[in-house]
Design brief:
Layout: H1 14-40, E1 54-55, E2 58-59, E3 69-75, E4 78-85, E5 88-93, E6 104-106, E7 111-113, E8 120-121, E9 127-129, E10 138-139, E11 141-143, E12 148-150
Antiparallel strand pairs: 1-2, 3-4, 4-5, 5-10, 6-7, 7-8, 8-9, 11-12
Length: 155
């Protein structure tokens, strides 16, 4: 028995239990906060530095996009939505100007839609319905033998 405190030496003190519980709680809380921050801050894809737009199967080819269909691919500019209407390909930045969600083409409604909050854009990126207030950036596309690519920057 500890003469100063009157507690047997084999017993655990309340202070030690509070310390262990506090350490565990702060570990769980910091893990949750780290996960939330990682989710809210999208990572930049540094591996894509080419002008070519790549999809799931490699470089995007014009014949891989069906009539009145849209495909999201990646290029040096980030995610690009490529829409085929007839013989024309339209390119738009695939990041919604409201909160940054990836947009997609709705061939039935003939508009670009954001799945997060319902913003709608026309085929040229102009806002049809909010909450987005800014249009999507238009991307100039070049179709070559190797596939679809974004136009090189003007010099």
């Amino acid at each position: 028995m500890d003469k100063q405190r009157g507690v047997p030496p084999d017993k655990v003190s309340r202070r030690f239990v509070n310390f262990v519980l506090g350490l565990g709680f702060s570990g769980i809380l910091s893990g949750f906060a780290g996960t939330a921050l990682a989710y809210l801050s999208p990572r930049r894809d540094s591996a894509v530095t080419s002008d070519f737009i790549t999809g799931r199967d490699g470089v995007l080819r014009p014949d891989a996009i069906g009539e009145n269909r849209g495909v999201v691919g990646r290029s040096r500019l980030g995610k690009i939505l490529v829409i085929r209407k007839g013989n024309r390909l339209f390119g738009l930045q695939a990041r919604c100007t409201h909160l940054g969600c990836t947009v997609g083409w709705d061939g039935v409604a003939q508009q670009v839609e954001c799945p997060c909050h319902g913003a709608c854009f026309d085929i040229r990126g102009q806002v049809l319905r909010g909450p987005a207030r800014q249009p999507l950036a238009q991307i100039e596309l070049v179709v070559g033998d190797e596939g679809v690519q974004v136009a090189p920057p003007a010099t």
